Amino acid sequence: MFKLARLGASTASKTRLSGLVSAKRFYVKEIKNDLKKQDSSESGDLVDLNAFKQAPNHPTVWSNEQIPREIAMTGPRFEQTDLEAQPRPLAAIDLIAKQPVRIVNGRKAYCDGEVSGSTGHPRVYINLDNPNTPATCLYCGLRFQQAHDHSHH
């Protein structure tokens, strides 16, 4: 609402937007309730658990803003879509966790995504003030830690 007021949007458009947001919340709640009812009524049926995984390597959502796959892939847009034939990329959150911590000589590290050209992210500098705890790049999730022999403590 604050952004709309700053942009000079009319009261009617602000009201319409708030109505759409509340309608979406209601719709998501209704779908969740329907799924719970289906689960309780069809307890004897076999269900393919991979069909409801968020990603092939991650079973659930990993962010509060993320909508579960079984809710997001519903509605008229997906009526005639074979969801099993759609690409399902691996969740990067699990892949980046497998990367080793980079040991850095000094109190600062920089990260640009470790990809050449424009496919990485902007170069960011990371303070390594605590030598015992790795610091994480906010763009890509790579972890950096100060070498133990370079700490000032």
From TrEMBL:
GO terms for biological process: mitochondrial electron transport, NADH to ubiquinone. Residues 106-144 form the Zinc finger CHCC-type domain. One of its GO terms (cellular component) is mitochondrion. It comes from the Eukaryota. InterPro entries: Znf_CHCC (IPR019401). This is Lactobacillus shifted protein. It comes from Smittium culicis. The lineage of its organism: Eukaryota, Fungi, Fungi incertae sedis, Zoopagomycota, Kickxellomycotina.
